[in-house]
């Protein structure tokens, strides 16, 4: 069983058993759906209702209908089974991307050291070639992500 971290329960909302999950997971729309199973402390919980509110994912789990029934979940980390995330061919989890090799269009090879967010919608890949290079994911420098070969192809600009 391979789990992927999707967020953390930060508080309750109201008195009817709804919890707030703080998540910066890229594919929230594939995780937070009614009927999907979340894993908290190696226990499975079914999402019974879902809505997005401000910066939070608001869910009710199993048949909990009262705030007192869900207090034991506060501050817990939330995971999903990796196989339950239905990614498209061009979508890759950050955890997998770090295992990919890097090739440049001029023949250099390297590896990905880290993937992080510079802002809410600006993900950066830290690549190690001869030196470290930061590549924005939404940049023309990133030419291809090949899931079959587990590699990315980048085109460096002069001076890098």
Structural classification? mainly beta
CATH architecture of the largest domain: Beta Barrel
The share of residues in extended strands comes to over 45%
Q: CATH class of the largest domain, please? A: Mainly Beta
Sheet with most strands: strand arrangement: 3-4-5-2-1-6
Give a short synopsis of this structure:
With 160 residues, the chain is mostly beta strands. It folds into 2 domains: 82 residues, Elongation Factor Tu (Ef-tu), domain 3 (Beta Barrel), CATH 2.40.30; 61 residues. The protein has 3 helices and 12 strands, in the order ββαβββαβαββββββ.
Report on this structure.
The protein has about 160 residues and is mainly beta. The chain has two domains: about 5-85, RimM (Elongation Factor Tu (Ef-tu), domain 3); about 95-155. The chain has three helices and twelve strands; from the N terminus they run ββαβββαβαββββββ. The protein has helices at about 30, 65-70, 95, and strands at about 5-15, 20, 35-40, 45-55, 55-60, 75-80, 100-105, 110-120, 120-130, 130-135, 140-145, 150-155. The strands form two sheets. The protein has a six-stranded antiparallel sheet with strand order 3-4-5-2-1-6, with no helix packed on it. It has a six-stranded mixed sheet with strand order 10-9-8-7-12-11. The chain is elongated and about 60 Å long. The model has no long low-confidence stretch (mean pLDDT about 90).
């Amino acid at each position: 069983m391979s789990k992927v971290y999707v967020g953390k329960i930060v508080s309750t909302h109201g008195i009817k058993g709804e919890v707030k999950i703080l998540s910066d997971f890229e594919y929230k729309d594939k995780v937070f759906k009614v009927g999907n199973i979340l894993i908290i402390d190696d226990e499975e919980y079914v999402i019974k209702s879902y809505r997005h509110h401000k910066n939070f994912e608001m869910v009710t789990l199993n048949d909990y209908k009262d705030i007192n029934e869900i207090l034991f979940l506060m501050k817990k980390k939330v995971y999903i089974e990796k196989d339950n995330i239905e990614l498209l061919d061009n979508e890759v989890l950050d955890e997998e991307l770090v295992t990919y090799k890097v090739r440049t269009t001029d023949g250099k090879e390297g590896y990905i050291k880290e993937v992080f967010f510079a802002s809410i919608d600006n993900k950066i890949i830290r690549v190690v070639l001869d030196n470290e290079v930061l590549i924005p994911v939404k940049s023309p420098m990133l030419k291809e992500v090949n899931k079959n070969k587990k590699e990315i192809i980048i085109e460096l600009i002069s001076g890098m």
